[in-house]
Design the sequence.
């Protein structure tokens, strides 16, 4: 689809929007008793209810036509066939191979990669089993009780999110911790409760050059060397990286280095050996189930017609709100305390992927691209920011996530949780009209004047959109399917917006400038030449640092 044409099609969605401007979801539900059946779908054991959106069949047909015209199916095939769809880095995008459960070859640059993928997974499995069984121990012969993953971005967010989410599968005697921030407080606060004799570090970095990770890794190395002696280092470190030479140089034993490949983007790497701390925490078998769940979603994405394809539907509804309605943020609200890092994980997955403003051809896009993704678990969010979602001036499309079965036998907690999540999407959709408010206040016995003053504050505009994702239980398989669902959603949106979802040049400038500023912050060079603000801040720091 040519640039002008794409812009025209996206603009044409505005006409569709105008058609629905005066029709509320409340009315649409009243007119169509089958709206839930019409606008819900299942895939990989996940139910998506998208009926509480400002859509009708004509809108969905237009959106599906847009996906076809934008070449979603062709691009999906190109990705599967190992074409270098990450054009600015000249790389294939093959994270699906990492979780592929079938027996067909998967080729990248003419080579079947499945042998290498499975060999690394086998090595991860063997190492994990040996650490968990106590076969592999620390330098002094003590069993490991704590595994500290040192990484940032994709080398942290995925494993950290999954480990929290799969807490019911963890063991009390082997805990996983995550250190990412270059702020020394992070590693300090994690290590202060740990015993070096029983602590294993995993240095996770695709490039093995990321400053935060290498700074933390060096501090961890010094902690081990200072307390247990330099010779203890090889027994307390493992690494996950595509840069095997740099890992070896750091002093990590060859058999404790787990590789992956440049066709795996950092934010798509949780399925690779980057998942090692997950396997340590929940056992390799559960990690394997997490991969299998993602593969189930891959099959759904690759084999289901666009009209019933969960990631495609979610992507298109996102495009609809972003481009036809101008909604700029998207909230992800899991009703699951253990999913507390899910939104943070999705922020990288979505915002680093589609936070772009040039097309594949390097021209400025003529439409909005990736939204701001944010969220927190319910019900906590209800008592914090939901006020704005219900009555603020911005409309914020939401995804609600909820399991039918909790892991705990603690009635009445889960019934209450479910009642809350259903209530929120219902309240957002229905709202409360002025007439309803007035009737309510009258019933409470308020005077006319009081009702007049209070009513406007109590009106809910309603007609606020949401998806609900329902699944039986948050198992490793379901979590894998959920993460893959969002990955494919981001892919589809990237194709429609015609951006490269697989590079991240936007993080480079800050890195470069930080490097240049470091000698000035240390007081080794003058700050001259920087703008007045930077010089002023530098001056304040140098005057107050001691
Ligand atoms: O933030 C930029 C980024 O390159 C991410 O894409 C990546 O996940 C993160 O840094 C960490 O990179 P690495 O795994 O190479 O240390």
Sequence:
């Amino acid at each position: 689809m040519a640039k002008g044409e794409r812009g025209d099609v996206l603009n044409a969605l505005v006409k569709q929007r105008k058609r629905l401007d005066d029709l509320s979801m409340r009315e649409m539900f009243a007119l169509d008793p089958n709206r839930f059946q019409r606008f819900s779908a299942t895939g990989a054991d996940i139910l998506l209810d998208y009926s509480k959106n400002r859509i009708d069949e004509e809108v969905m047909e237009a959106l599906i036509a847009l996906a076809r015209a934008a070449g979603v199916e062709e691009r999906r095939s190109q990705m599967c066939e190992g074409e270098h769809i990450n054009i600015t880095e000249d790389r294939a995008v093959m994270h699906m191979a990492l979780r592929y459960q079938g027996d067909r070859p998967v080729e990248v640059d003419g080579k079947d990669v499945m042998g290498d993928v499975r060999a690394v997974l086998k090595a991860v499995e063997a190492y994990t089993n040996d650490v968990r069984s106590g076969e592999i121990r620390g330098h002094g012969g003590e069993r490991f009780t704590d595994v500290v993953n040192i990484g940032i971005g994709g080398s942290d967010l995925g494993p950290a999110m999954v480990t929290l989410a799969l807490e019911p599968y963890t063991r009390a005697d082997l805990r996983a911790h995550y250190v990412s921030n270059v702020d020394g407080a992070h590693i300090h606060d994690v290590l202060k409760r740990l015993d070096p004799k029983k602590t294993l570090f995993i240095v996770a970095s695709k490039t093995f050059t990321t400053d935060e990770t290498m700074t933390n890794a060096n501090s961890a190395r010094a902690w081990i060397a200072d307390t247990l002696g330099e010779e203890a280092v090889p027994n307390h470190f493992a690494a996950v990286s595509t840069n095997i030479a740099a890992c070896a140089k750091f002093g990590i034993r060859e058999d404790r280095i787990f590789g992956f490949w440049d066709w795996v983007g950092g934010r798509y790497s949780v399925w690779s050996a980057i998942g090692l701390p997950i396997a340590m925490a929940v056992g390799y078998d559960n990690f394997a189930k997490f991969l299998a769940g993602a593969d189930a979603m891959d099959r759904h994405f690759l084999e289901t017609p666009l009209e019933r394809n969960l990631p495609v539907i979610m992507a298109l509804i996102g495009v609809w709100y972003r481009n036809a309605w101008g909604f700029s943020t998207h909230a992800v609200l899991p009703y699951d305390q253990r999913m507390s890092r899910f939104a943070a994980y999705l922020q990288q997955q979505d915002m680093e992927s589609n936070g772009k403003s040039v097309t594949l051809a390097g021209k400025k896009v003529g439409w909005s691209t990736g939204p701001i993704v944010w969220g927190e678990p319910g019900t906590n969010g209800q008592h914090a920011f939901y006020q704005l979602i219900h009555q603020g001036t911005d409309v914020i499309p939401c995804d609600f996530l909820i399991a039918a079965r909790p892991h705990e036998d603690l009635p009445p907690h889960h019934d209450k949780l479910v009642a809350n999540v259903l209530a929120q999407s219902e309240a957002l959709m229905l709202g409360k009209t002025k007439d309803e408010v007035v009737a309510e206040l009258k019933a409470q016995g308020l005077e006319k004047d009081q009702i007049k003053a209070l009513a406007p504050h109590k009106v809910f505009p309603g007609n606020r959109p949401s998806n609900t994702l329902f699944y039986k239980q948050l198992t490793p398989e379901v979590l894998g399917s959920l993460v893959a669902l969002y990955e494919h959603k981001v892919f589809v949106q990237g194709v429609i917006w015609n951006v490269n979802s697989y590079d991240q040049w936007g993080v480079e400038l800050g890195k470069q400038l930080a490097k240049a500023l470091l000698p000035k912050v240390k007081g080794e060079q003058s700050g001259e030449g920087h703008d007045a603000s930077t010089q002023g801040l530098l001056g304040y720091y140098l005057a107050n640092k001691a």
The chain has a mean pLDDT of 97. DSSP finds 23 helices and 13 strands in the chain. The longest strand covers residues 398-405.
